[in-house]
Specification:
Order of helices and strands: EHEHEEEEEE
Distance between the termini: 19 Å
Strand content: 25-35%
Shape: globular
Radius of gyration: 14 Å
Helix content: 10-25%
Number of strands: 8
Length: 110
């Protein structure tokens, strides 16, 4: 989940559509629970961030920390070396009541 501006969302989506890889620029944490991710994403939006990018990930190297996490979910950690590409061009956009959006993007780890 990533809260971004309209401009940054366009840059990220265009980069992925061109077949380029993406990384999270550090250790990344992913949830296996979509509703938790959606709520986290909604909370990441503010005056400068109108779009939440919700990544549905095909996992290869992430490790579950469910037994160590303080959160009631299956949290998956990915190392800084993880890279992702667009799995398909199916983007699902959900309009929120406040005029902001959640865009779901299907990625796979490479």
């Amino acid at each position: 989940v990533l809260g971004v501006s309209d401009e940054d969302a366009d840059k990220i989506i265009n980069k992925l559509k061109q077949g380029k890889t993406m990384d999270m620029q550090g250790i990344s944490s992913w949830s296996s629970n979509k509703s938790i991710s959606m709520n986290f994403g909604k909370n990441s939006l503010d005056d400068n961030k109108n779009i939440c990018l919700l990544f549905n990930l095909e996992n290869k190297s992430g490790a579950s920390v469910k037994e160590l996490s303080v959160f009631p979910e299956d949290e998956i950690l990915h190392p800084t070396t993880s890279r992702y590409v667009l799995k398909n061009n199916d983007f699902k956009t959900t309009e929120l009541e406040n005029g902001k959006k959640i865009i779901e993007i299907n990625l796979k780890e490479v």
